[in-house]
Design brief:
This protein has about 130 residues and is an alpha+beta fold. It is about 20% helix and about 30% strand.
């Protein structure tokens, strides 16, 4: 098995010793993305909506750096610090995954990296070598 590490030039830098994405056996595994502004490296701490949008944009940048699109995503896992935000999350998420509707799990956790409100990871199909 060969694997290729994916780190978008315009994406946020990892907050630990991991790759933003790894391609292996035709799949892209995207590490959990949080609402980091890639241009400043700072957390986006505005409203929950803005945090979710930034997190999804970061996810999208890793997927596109691997040559795929959001339509190629087959599984998403979402971690929330408060399940009360589930409805708002769904409304924003639907804008990004309107047609493809990948499999998904969403859970509330006690704490996320840097005390953010949301973290999202994904698995996508890669349609090239």
């Amino acid at each position: 098995m060969t694997k290729k590490l994916i780190a978008p030039e315009q994406g946020p830098k990892p907050v630990g010793p991991y790759s933003p994405g790894v391609v292996a056996n035709g799949f892209l595994f995207v590490s959990g993305q949080i609402p980091l502004d890639p241009s400043t490296g700072r957390l986006v701490t505005d409203s929950f909506e803005i945090q979710v949008r930034q997190t999804l944009e970061n996810l999208k940048s890793v997927i596109e750096a691997a040559g795929s699109t959001l339509q190629d995503v087959v599984k998403v896992t979402i971690f929330l610090d408060d399940m009360e935000n589930f409805g708002e999350l769904n409304a924003i998420y639907a804008e990004y995954f309107d047609e493809s509707k990948p499999a998904r799990a969403t859970m509330q956790v006690a704490r996320l990296p840097k005390d953010v409100a949301v973290e999202i990871e994904a698995i996508a199909v890669v349609n090239h070598p």
